[in-house]
Amino acid sequence: MKKTIALFTTTRAEFGILASFIRKVQEDSSLNSFLFVGGTHLKKEFGHTIDEINNSGFKVTDTFDYLDQIEDSPYNLTKSSGKCMEQLAEIFKKYSFDYTCILGDRFELIPIVQSSVLFNVPIIHFGGGEITEGAIDNKIRHMVTQASDIHLTAADTYSQFLVNMGIPKEDVCTVGSLAVETMKNVAPIDKEFLFKDLNLDLNKETIMMTYHPVTVKGEYTQLQQIENIFKVLLDYDFQIVITAPNLEAEREIIIDYINKQVEQNENMHLFNSLGMKRYHSMISYCSFIIGNSSSGIFEVPFYKKPTVNIGDRQKGRYLHPSIIQTDNSTLSIKQGIEKAKSAEYLSEIKDMKYQFGEGNSSELALQFIKSKLLDLC
To answer: Per residue in 301-310, pLDDT tens?
Structure first.
């Protein structure tokens, strides 16, 4: 009898990485699959990205809409998690599947993991073994790891960390980053067409920025962090493409400040979501990427483009030579930008080796999962 894998997605960030694997599973005749879509995918404030999922040809089985209010307080996020549990209970009761598949380290995974444990459904997890000291995601990732049964990592270093945590070596497989497949296999949108579509100036030097809340407290407040970035950026004549931050505690501080800056500066353009293809295409047309997104760590190095990575949110992850680490001070950020613009530095990174896989992660993951399925029955 065919085994059924239930794939869950709740944000644009994790779907953009998981998409290639979802497609591989849905096209595999030896497996059945369900795709459950929830969270910010269903909200217009975050681009209503379920439209992108549907338009890309994915078969959505059902949705779970647990965000009554787009409010970033811990109280509201906790209430949303409780509602998510209620809706997941109905999904787990209504649909029969053999495995749950999830990716990443966001708080939305906890209700999915808890439901899987209570319904005795084994968990397949992408993205374990990483460290991000500047975000609560670090704790969540390790919680998910301890509950999961099959572990698929982006690098050997992360696999070894899982083994050091006590995960059986035979349950861990290094497959690389799933995002590489999307980047390798999807042709970029023509620059002239893309810039016209996004109402951008084709002739201006363009950079892209994504800055998420730093959910572990440090020296600078959330407001000071985002203020310092813009203080430095306003010294330059960049055209800045900004993607909105994730739904996390203190998100509103960041998005409110960004909105004010965008209103006052015609060179700044804010998007709730660019979508996978537009986002990856834009990376290739930017001089560099700035912010603290995991995309700057995993995806941007593939294009041999500099990432100015600000603060501690990604602290602990492997950093390619193309990643320029700064603190949150204006001086450090400015030094990072100047390095990203340096012809000497750009020459140094143009031939660097990308460390997160060769673009066959979905196939490697699926082979490993199939080899383990009978063990988990």
So the answer is: 999 999 999 9
